[in-house]
Design goal:
The structure holds 2 protein chains of 2 kinds. Chain A is an alpha/beta fold. Chain A has one domain (about 15-270): 3-Layer(aba) Sandwich (Rossmann fold). Chain A has 10 helices and 10 strands. The longest helix of chain A is centred in the middle third of the chain and has 14 residues, at about 140-155. The radius of gyration of chain A is 19 Å and the shape is globular. Chain B has a single domain (about 10-215), classed as Methane Monooxygenase Hydroxylase, Chain G, domain 1. Chain B is built from 7 helices and no strands. Chain B is elongated. Classes of the chains: A alpha/beta, B mainly alpha. The interface of A and B includes residues 231 and 271 of A.
């Protein structure tokens, strides 16, 4: 099935203002008028969002505003929840409608990796954590796997710390190292997009700084979408920020603009700590 | 304009309020010092000049206090958006106010020199500049205090008028110097005072620009025409 990617008409309040350094970036992810419900409970309403490629997009908002739900829509993680569905609208990864029947969900999740709030390494060796996804993808050649393991661990800024103990259990790593291992695991299958759901919420400031530094390096090659409750983190790491409230995208624009002079009163109240 | 909602952290509101109050207190002290220096000129009163000079210490201390408080707010609350602009503006206003107080000191010192000699009729040339500069200072602070962007925007044009007054005073006094070299020193002191008032206008303009930035997030500095 070949479907034309529709033109997006965004309301003025949510119109994308691409920051200078992302101006020339093509759109990696296009969310078009997405409504989403858990059974009868509608949690997203008419979300329109363009995510520029090779940049970091932060989604912020109070708990329950729908930002994680949207994140999980992008690699169809919500398919795993009974009654959870997109009721209207579409999400495009490049030219592909990710909810089209011909889309292979396993392949989609290879292209759109995810890092969760709590690091979740497999109870296996460091090496096997990275190799797992490759083996699932059908890679059997030992030298290819070795090469990918090293490349992924280097890209996740973890290689120097673990290169001499690749056969040790991943569960013996610190929290920050485990989270970087999970990032390396996502990178091993060479995704286009990495989704991060509060990746630093359980980490100390040093480990958080390492992940943030890593995000800056990874955006040269990957498109990153990060959900965070940490306003300073969104300000430091992201190129674009979207503010969600009660299932709506209230404002989306260049991070520098959102955090210096947001257009919407609700955004201002939230980021300045006046909410509630 | 709509009053911003309160922060969830009441202490944050309190810290911002305290910072703003300190800036307003600083503006009051600065204006008082300038007024003392100028009245010292008009009334030939060395005592008031001495007050303008001595009270600068109070302004200097308050300047340091406001800077400390501003940095403290940045550290503790990491303000963003309008809160950040308000803190940055307060710190910048603080610096401009301190410089106005320095102008008051300079004026006070010159006036004391002038007062050692017979009164100069040309002092009256300074009056329009004094009125103009003082009005600019008051209104720039008013614009900040009331968050009145429109009033703040008017200050820039008025600074040009003050510059012209200063040029005009300079021309007249230069002419007088040629005719009456005996009073050259006195005329130079008056020119210096006029120059100080012209600088007060510059600081008032800066304050107004910061007031616009604080409220409207607009940088109107270095815009001509």
């Amino acid at each position: 099935m070949v479907t034309e990617m529709p033109e997006i008409v965004m309301p003025a309040s949510t119109r994308l203002q691409i920051p200078t350094d992302a101006e020339d970036s093509p759109t990696a992810i296009r969310v078009v008028s997405v409504d989403f419900a858990y059974d009868e409970h509608h949690v997203l309403h008419g979300i329109d969002l363009d995510v520029p490629a090779k940049s970091v997009t932060a989604l912020i908002g109070p708990s329950g505003c729908g930002k994680t739900t949207l994140l999980r829509c992008i690699n169809r993680m919500n398919d795993l929840i009974d009654g959870a569905r997109i009721t209207s609208g579409s999400i495009w990864l490049g030219d592909a409608d990710i909810n089209a029947p011909e889309i292979d969900v396993v392949d989609l999740r290879r292209r759109v990796g995810m890092v969760f709030q709590k690091s979740n390494p497999f109870p296996k060796s460091i090496y096997d954590n990275i190799a797992y996804g490759l083996r699932v993808a059908g890679v059997t050649k030992r030298s290819s796997i070795n090469e990918s393991v090293e490349r992924s661990l280097r890209a996740a800024a973890l290689w120097d710390e673990v290169k001499d103990r690749l056969d040790r259990s991943a569960l013996g790593l610190s929290g920050g190292q485990q989270q970087r291992l999970c990032i390396a695991r996502a990178l091993a299958v060479q995704p286009d997009v990495i989704l991060m759901d509060e990746p630093c919420s359980a980490l100390d400031p040093i480990a958080t700084a390492r992940i943030e530094e890593l995000i800056q390096q990874l955006k040269r090659e990957y498109t990153i979408v990060i959900v965070t409750h940490n306003m300073q983190q969104a300000g430091r790491c992201s190129d674009q920020t979207g503010f969600f409230y009660l299932g709506r995208l209230i404002e989306y624009g260049a991070t520098s603009k959102i955090f210096s002079n947001p257009s919407q009163r609700q955004t201002e109240d939230y980021i300045t700590g006046r909410f509630g | 304009m709509m009053e911003p909602a309160r922060h969830i952290l009441a202490n944050f509101d309190e810290a911002l309020r305290a910072l703003r109050n300190s800036v307003l207190m600083m503006s009051g002290l600065t204006e008082r010092n300038l007024n003392n220096a100028m009245q010292g000129l008009f009334e030939r009163d060395d005592e008031r000049c001495a007050l303008a000079i001595a009270d600068d210490e109070e302004v200097d201390q308050l300047e340091k206090q406001i800077d400390r408080d501003g940095v403290d707010v940045l550290l503790r609350y990491q303000p963003v958006a309008s809160d950040l602009r308000r803190v940055v503006s307060a710190i910048k206003l603080n610096s401009n106010l301190e410089r106005v107080a320095d102008q008051a000191v300079s004026i006070g010192r010159r006036v004391r020199k002038l007062n050692r000699h017979p009164a100069l009729a040309e002092v009256k040339l300074i009056t329009p500049m004094h009125v103009h500069a003082l009005a600019m200072l008051r209104e720039s602070i008013d614009a900040y205090a009331r968050e009145d962007v429109e009033l703040a925007r008017t200050l820039k044009g008025r600074d040009k008028a003050l510059d012209e007054l200063n040029a005009s005073v300079g021309r007249e006094l230069t002419e007088k110097m040629a005719h009456d070299p005996q009073r050259l020193r006195g005329y130079l002191n008056l020119m210096f005072i006029a120059r100080c008032l012209e600088r007060v206008g510059d600081h008032a303009t800066n304050i107004a620009e910061d007031a616009v930035y604080a409220v409207a997030a607009e940088d109107i500095r270095h815009q001509h025409g």
